[in-house]
């Protein structure tokens, strides 16, 4: 395609119009988007970027020695091969692992040894969604696969919310709480802040970035936003904005201090507790100290959090005096004992008892996702059927390294004891575990274990550099699709913007070709091509639109036209029904109420009420003497995760190609560090080289390094030391984070918080590894 006219497309960070100008894309956000995301510009240079994969690749060691465990994964070279040979090699290995049309009707399925969790964000289209495609493929050819449950976003929080509230999504996110806050709230207590940075994103699409406007209008009306976070820029500069900086991981102590004050001053809404909750009387002895001799007073909380007791008392009184909304970000629970702050935030909101009034109450993840706090759609979306997974086995998603390293080993999840499967084949499409997982050197050791690893991606990620067979996929920009998401009011024709780069194929085409070689083509494709599938998926939404007497164009007209406005649900939120009639519309918890005490949590081995459980790595632990800084590894401003890390918005946030870490200016001065210095962050798991940015916005004792730099481990001897350690020279924080579970209840990821030491890298600075060289080719 030469230069093209403007066409529509969509991404997790927004819908847009674009046209091709030579190898670049000119991108304009949707006119109606009040606050478009700069991340859109990362698409501008991707079409022919050197990081793109242009040919199937096979790992040299696998080609020579055949399938089997191999510690060379991650440091081997790759041989380009043609498509037919690559597909033959892959199909032969899949067949050896048991794939094919004849699967046992009962008894063990070959898929019981295949990990197809394939966690990751893929791209936004409803049909080409890579994770859905790989699941459908594995269900077709293996009868199923070992899957994964929960997310890296929210596992500890999701599990605790399910047990004590019924369901996190339906109960606390699926309602119009932004509108309520804008019009009615007096005070918003934002644990983890309400940062515009993460709210750029919503899974599947985010056409209208409305959070800034809601907050500005609320603040102009007099609503006060209090950001409780180690980073001051986790809340935009609103009139009257307040910022409180507890030590990271101590929010639950701050909340308990507030709760104690409410209880002591008779500010608890007893009616709300009686009507809508259960178990307060079993929590109270812990709060007052009758149980353990330690009253959870604001003074007690000050010693843990570093927040003055007077501030905590004042917050409690103000929260009880007006209409208060309590919200907690995902980040709080991506930490050891991450269940506790989310549960306690819910309990605090219940004690305030204002959830029955608009603008009051509780929400989870309002500051984490552009979709939270918006009403859900009133009609079904086009959805690719994934088929049936007949393998019942799964892992909590963040236990991937344990699964591969310890087949047969027992672990707990939601109070059950389970054991890890014996995995021989790993298939990943649409995710980047060497972005998302913790303790990446351990993950490398885990990836040495299977017989074979197959990865599809459009770029040469560190995950591809651990695979045996790598298939180069097209970009979303190079294909047509349907853009839609559960809380986004537009259905978007995602119009192809460029011809596929030579040598790449759609994931669907790759799976179709493999299915054909395995004798499973028809069950996989059902005789349809990509456009045929999209027309079929679209029909369901089109019919629903027609039933509602809304414009419902034929598929071809829709794909050639403008985005369609979709109806959203008005009223009827699940929590509102519960509040209207707690007997008839009880929650899906054991007691039907909000559980301040949970028997199921107690049976799973944790205390039965929310409580302060210090993690291993926080500023108050012994380990902080060796590693005195709390690393906050949060979401990157200029991209989604590792995606398009080489794009202009992302690169503008780096210094000489290396990711930047921010620390408090006084801490930097004390360590003799200046802006732009190359510094080493390290702990017992490894090191990361970053460029330093001193900043007043970061609380003392904290160093913030967002995720997203492409993992490039090198053996290096730190200045003044005599032994080599492994250092990510590009600045990926996940070489430093711990691969342990939030708890044995949820097994959630704890990537947000760990402890590190910070030193200047003196002497020659090791070069960064360019994106095109992460996977060594040729
Ligand atoms: N330390 C720390 N770690 C974290 C977090 C943290 O806060 N701290 N956050 C966690 C969270 S919340 C998440 S959700 C995870 C995110 O982790 P991931 O979702 O795994 O990260 P992405 O970079 O989005 O990976 C998506 C991959 O899919 C590829 N891709 C995109 N489109 C397509 C396609 O059409 N086909 C194919 N085959 N591939 C495609 C992209 O190129 C990219 O490599 O990270 C987690 N990791
Ligand atoms: N630009 C951009 N936006 C994104 C993403 C992205 O990659 N890039 N990823 C998306 C995804 S998949 C997800 S799941 C969400 C994640 O949403 P979140 O997990 O909410 O986002 P984070 O940026 O990781 O964390 C938000 C803030 O929490 C604060 N924080 C960390 N630890 C603590 C603590 O112990 N106490 C308190 N009070 N605050 C703490 C940090 O200062 C951090 O800036 O973001 C989404 N949005
Ligand atoms: Mo996430």
TrEMBL record:
Source taxon at top rank: Bacteria
Describe the location of the Molybdopterin oxidoreductase N-terminal domain by residue ranges.
9-44
Molybdopterin dinucleotide-binding domain boundaries: 629-748
Upper lineage: Bacteria, Pseudomonadati, Pseudomonadota, Alphaproteobacteria, Rhodobacterales
Q: What is this protein called?
A: Molybdopterin-dependent oxidoreductase
Homology family: Belongs to the prokaryotic molybdopterin-containing oxidoreductase family.
Q: Which residues form a coiled coil?
A: none
Q: Which UniProt keywords apply?
A: Metal-binding, Molybdenum, Oxidoreductase
Species assigned in the record = Pseudodonghicola flavimaris
The cofactor named in the record is: Mo-bis(molybdopterin guanine dinucleotide)
- Give the Molybdopterin oxidoreductase domain ranges: 52-516
Offer one Pfam family short name for this entry: Molybdopterin
């Amino acid at each position: 395609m030469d230069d093209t006219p403007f066409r529509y497309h969509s991404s997790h960070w927004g819908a847009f119009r674009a046209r091709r100008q030579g190898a670049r894309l000119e991108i304009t956000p949707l006119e109606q988007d009040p606050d478009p995301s700069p991340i859109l510009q990362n698409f501008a240079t991707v079409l022919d970027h050197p990081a793109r994969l242009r040919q199937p690749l096979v790992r040299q060691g696998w080609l020579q020695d055949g399938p089997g465990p191999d510690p060379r994964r991650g440091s081997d070279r790759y041989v380009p091969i043609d498509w037919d040979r690559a597909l033959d090699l892959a199909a032969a290995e899949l067949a050896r692992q048991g794939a094919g049309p004849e699967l046992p009707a009962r008894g063990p399925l070959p898929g019981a040894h295949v990990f197809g969790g394939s966690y990751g964000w893929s791209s936004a289209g409803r049909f080409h969604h890579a994770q859905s495609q790989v699941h459908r493929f594995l269900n077709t050819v293996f009868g199923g696969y070992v899957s994964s449950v929960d997310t890296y976003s929210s596992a500890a929080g999701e599990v605790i919310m399910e047990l004590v509230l019924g369901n996190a999504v339906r109960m606390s996110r699926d309602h119009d709480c932004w509108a309520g806050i804008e019009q009615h709230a007096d005070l918003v207590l934002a644990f983890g802040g309400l940062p515009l940075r993460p709210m750029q994103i919503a899974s599947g699409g985010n056409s209208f970035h409305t959070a800034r406007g809601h907050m500005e209008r609320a603040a102009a009306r007099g609503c006060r936003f209090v950001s409780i976070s180690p980073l001051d820029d986790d809340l935009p500069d609103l009139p009257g904005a307040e910022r409180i900086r507890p030590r990271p991981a101590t929010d639950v102590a701050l909340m308990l201090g507030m709760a104690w004050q409410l209880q002591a001053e008779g500010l608890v809404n007893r009616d709300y507790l009686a009507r809508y909750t259960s178990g307060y009387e079993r929590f109270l002895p812990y709060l007052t100290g009758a149980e353990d001799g330690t009253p959870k007073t604001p003074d007690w909380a000050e010693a843990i959090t570093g927040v003055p007791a007077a501030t905590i008392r004042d917050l409690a009184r103000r929260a009880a005096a007006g209409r208060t909304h309590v919200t907690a970000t995902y980040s709080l629970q991506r930490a050891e004992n991450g269940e506790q702050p989310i549960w306690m935030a819910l309990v605090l909101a219940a004690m305030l008892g204002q959830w029955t009034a608009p603008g009051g109450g509780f929400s989870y993840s309002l500051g984490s996702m552009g979709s939270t706090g918006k009403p859900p759609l009133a009609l079904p979306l086009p959805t690719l059927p994934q088929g049936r997974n007949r393998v019942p086995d799964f892992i909590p998603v963040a236990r991937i390294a344990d699964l591969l390293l310890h087949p047969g080993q027992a672990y707990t999840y939601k109070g059950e004891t389970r054991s890890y499967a014996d995995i021989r084949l790993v298939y990943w499409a649409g995710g980047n575990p060497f972005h998302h997982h913790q303790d990446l050197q351990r993950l490398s050791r885990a990836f040495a274990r299977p017989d074979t690893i197959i990865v599809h991606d459009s770029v040469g990620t560190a995950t591809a550099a651990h695979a045996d067979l790598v298939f180069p996929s097209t970009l979303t920009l190079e294909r047509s699709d349907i853009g839609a998401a559960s809380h986004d009011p537009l259905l978007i024709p995602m119009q192809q913007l460029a011809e596929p780069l030579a040598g790449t194929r759609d994931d669907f085409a790759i799976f179709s070709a493999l299915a054909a070689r395995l004798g499973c083509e028809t069950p996989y494709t059902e005789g349809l091509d990509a456009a045929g599938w999209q027309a079929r998926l679209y029909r369901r939404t089109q019919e629903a639109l027609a039933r509602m007497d809304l414009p419902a164009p034929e598929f071809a007209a829709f794909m050639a036209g403008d985005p369609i406005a979709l109806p959203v649900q008005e009223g009827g939120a699940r929590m509102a029904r519960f509040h209207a009639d707690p007997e008839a519309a009880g929650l899906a918890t054991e007691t039907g109420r909000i559980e301040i005490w949970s028997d199921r949590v107690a049976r799973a081995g944790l205390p039965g009420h929310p409580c302060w459980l210090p993690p291993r790595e926080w500023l108050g632990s012994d380990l902080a003497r060796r590693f005195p800084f709390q690393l906050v590894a949060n979401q990157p401003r200029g991209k989604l995760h590792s995606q398009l890390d080489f794009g202009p918005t992302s690169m503008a946030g780096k210094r000489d190609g290396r990711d930047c870490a921010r620390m408090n200016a006084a801490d930097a001065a004390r360590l003799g560090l200046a802006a732009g210095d190359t510094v080493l962050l390290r702990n017992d798991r490894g090191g990361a080289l970053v460029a330093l940015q001193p900043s007043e916005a970061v609380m003392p004792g904290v160093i913030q390094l967002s995720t997203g730099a492409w993992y490039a481990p090198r053996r290096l001897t730190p200045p003044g030391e005599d032994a080599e350690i492994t250092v990510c020279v590009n600045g990926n924080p996940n070489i430093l984070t711990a691969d342990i579970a939030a708890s044995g209840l949820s097994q959630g990821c704890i990537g947000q918080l760990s402890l590190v030491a910070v030193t200047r890298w003196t002497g020659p600075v090791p070069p960064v590894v360019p994106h095109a060289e992460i996977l060594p080719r040729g």
